[in-house]
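Readers of this paper often ask what the protein records in our data store actually look like. Such a record has a labelled line for the sequence and another for the backbone structure tokens. The tokens are whole numbers drawn from a learned vocabulary of local backbone shapes. We quote a single record here, exactly as it is kept in our systems:
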Amino acid sequence: MRPLPVTIELVDNRRRRSDWLQLPYAVHADDPAWIPPLIFQERLRTFSRANPFFAFGRASCFLAYRGSRAVGRISAQMNDRYREQYGRAVGHFGFFVCQDDEEAARALVDAAADWLRTAGAVEMAGPFSFSVNEECGLLVEGFDTPPAFLMNHARPYFGRLLEAAGLIKTMDTFAYRMSPKHIPAPIQRLADHARRIQGVSIRKLNKARFDEDIRTIIDIYNDAWRDNWGFVPFADAEVKGMARELKPFLSAGYGRIVHIGDAPVAMLLCLPDLNDVQRDFGGRLLPFNWAKLAYRLWKDKARSARIVLLGTRKAYQSSAAAVGVLALMVSELLEESKTHDLDWVEFSWVLEVNKSMNALGRLGAGEPVKRYRIYQKPLS
């Protein structure tokens, strides 16, 4: 029997939004490493205008169907801040999930490309869900372990589907996992050296002035990363959204700010791995999982964590203190993690071209446990 034809539909009504949210459950049904995201969070971040992305970007979502069955999905989005940063009309795609179906995947990529061309883009890149400051890249190595919080998971064939649709690699990023039980001696030596540098002090986040500390962290990040590939500075809407969303989940011990004299020059922000906390929820908080979530967070039940931001201000990056200051923050975080009885702390995502951060990752963890790939395709 010949397969039913592929049709592409804009996600513009309740039924298709439901199909969009449910599709990953079908694609990952037999994948033990996949952790279902909370459906209400996925609905809010994808379709709600409250998502900070929509303050400076616009997007459309598409589904591929064979008959009445959804077999794939993709988003297409234009980020005005990216265009301001680079002066190029590069459009992005994201949220790619698909059955092992080359025809459907090609139709999805073509639909996203057509939308981006209409929006004025001359190139498409991704996946970004929705921006470079959210989930980035497609998992291409490390399929056998669950992802950390705010990192994506994929089936091994996803990359092949995108490549068959004409996308090529533009950048890889790495994830490293460090064990708090065994802090490597080189990290400890660098940290001890940094402690002896005159004027250096380190502190935890202050929950009494949490919003201010988050702004300090983002200010350092925006300065530290400004010359990195693909960087787009956090917008005010994103910073406010981050502070609002993180505060209930983040204890002071999960962040560090380093000062030299009175000036904040380096930062580290780590999140408890909410994927680990809610992996048995099946994506749902009702009727009783909300109580489980509150209890597990209150009892500090997460067994893993993820460093999401780490860096020093640009002016200090070539100084003798730079690597030591980074090691100092990592060392203190790993020591703190012992009190939380964590199995591992992930350091991600690290650009493959970032030699200093990859050197730090390998010192602390050895080889990367996961590789993520960002693709691109000209649209002219």
Q: What stands out?
A: The radius of gyration is 21 Å. The first strand starts at residue 6 and ends at 10. The mean pLDDT is 89. Residues 104 and 349 are 29 Å apart (CA to CA).
